[in-house]
TrEMBL record:
InterPro entries: 4CMD/NDH-1_regulator (IPR052512), AhpD-like (IPR029032), CMD-like (IPR003779). Residues 28-93, 159-236 form the Carboxymuconolactone decarboxylase-like domain. This is Carboxymuconolactone decarboxylase-like domain-containing protein. It holds the Pfam family CMD. Coiled coil: none annotated. GO terms for molecular function: peroxiredoxin activity.
Length: 245
């Protein structure tokens, strides 16, 4: 009888230990699958910059710095945003960031500046470099005849290749993944640009972001951009994910 009790206790201990290991493993898997804290804050900062709610943006900027984003990483996210929401929103975002940094410095907080963008030493025409970068982002070769807006207004295609995908995406402070998270945050925030959002959600998947991470993205932007725009973004994500099955 005593032996049976001892065996049962031992089995109980082994079971508890196994469940603990299982729980830890599951938690670690979930953590690896989730967007990291820096990415989550980049998304919120970009969405709020595009929305133009500067009072709320101050909170997002403080949260981002507290989460470990460097000053230059945040600056780069706001700079990147201008390509999708325009100079006025981006400049107001930068001005708000300057105020936040001054306030934090007055409180004795010394934020990490971080690495600045490296000089771009790439050779060749910017149009060709932008084309190569776009192919890396989409995973699709740029060989098809142009159609739609690119055929209707070829100058826009030149601007996109030379400026957006060369001048901006070539900069190294943020990774392609981070830049795309900033991009979909801005496009979701401005709203009514679903074809562009769809394209960039596909790019996110091509770069290795997961369906779970993109669903997490929807949850991050929801309290910032509101129900209507969140629903539109969620619908686009759902359609993109269905097309991959």
């Amino acid at each position: 009888m005593h032996m049976n009790t001892g065996i049962l206790k031992a089995l109980g201990i082994i079971l508890i230990f196994s469940l603990s290991l299982f729980s830890i493993s599951n938690a670690q898997d979930m953590q690896r699958a989730a967007l990291n804290h820096k990415q989550q804050n980049l998304i919120a900062i970009a969405a709020q910059t595009a929305k133009g709610d500067l009072a709320a943006l101050k909170g997002n900027l403080n949260n981002g710095l507290d989460a470990g984003l460097t000053v230059n990483e945040i600056k780069e996210a706001i700079l990147h945003s201008y390509a999708y929401c325009g100079f006025p929103r981006s400049i107001r975002g930068l001005q708000t960031f300057m105020t936040v940094l001054d306030d934090r410095k007055a409180k004795g907080l010394n934020d990490v500046i971080g690495a600045d963008a490296s000089a771009i030493l790439a050779e060749g025409k910017k149009f060709d470099r932008g084309k190569v970068i776009l192919e890396k982002l989409t995973g699709v070769k740029e060989t098809e005849p142009k159609k739609g807006y690119a055929a209707f207004a070829p100058t826009m295609e030149i601007f996109l290749k030379e400026h957006l995908f060369a001048d901006i995406f070539e900069r190294d402070v943020l990774s392609f993944k981070d830049r795309e998270l900033v991009t979909i945050a801005v496009i979701s925030s401005i709203g009514f640009a679903e074809p562009m959002l769809r394209s960039h959600l596909n790019i996110c998947l091509n770069l290795g972001l997961t369906a779970q991470q993109l669903q997490q993205f929807i949850g991050i932007v929801k309290p910032i951009i509101g129900e209507e725009k969140t629903l539109a973004a969620a619908n686009e994500l759902s359609e993109v994910l269905k097309s991959k099955n």
